[in-house]
From TrEMBL:
Its cofactor is Mg(2+); Mn(2+). InterPro entries: CoAse, NUDIX_hydrolase-like_dom_sf, NUDIX_hydrolase_dom. It comes from the Bacteria. This is Coenzyme A pyrophosphatase. Keywords: Hydrolase, Magnesium, Manganese, Metal-binding.
Amino acid sequence: MDASDIINKLKDRVPSILGYEQLRKSAVLLPLVEIANETHILFEVRSMELRNQPGDICFPGGRIDREDPDPRYSAVRETTEELGINESTIRDVLPLDYIAMERGRLIYPFVGRITNLTELKPNPAEVSEVFTVPLAHFVNTDPERYKVNLQVVPDSNFPFDLIVGGEDYNWRTHHVEELFYKYENKVIWGLTARILTHFIELLNEK
């Protein structure tokens, strides 16, 4: 295969993320609700019966199923399943920036409006509590920021003889920044806080 054949083979290709098919993909919805003529953000408290992150505060959402046509559909579907609401009450769903996470996760966040809170019937298998926080609280409150240092620990059978420096190789370590918001007796952190901060930054840009 010569260079011309290679160029012709690749010229119309649309780039994606390397290893995209192997990534675990999820979609979440940042729900806006109106309470007493004020915009609030709705949060869930994960059931203590869940295997992953029980008791954490999150947005509605979950894994993108193979049969879902796109991430937006997944975010809406998961929201209806977790909150027990009809899809017709979810409106104006718009994408935020997607997030490439550690450990091979890809998150597609969306923002949208829930127009009827009286229909809420949270699924107790997944949601132990639902609460709202005025949007103004986050607009006027900077998150607390803390660093988590990540350490490189090669397996016992790692082939040090194949790399320059061997066992003395200077691994590049790094850290992740965790964000925390507090509201009354609630603590919002982790991925939820990252999406929330991104959303507030977009509002401040406009």
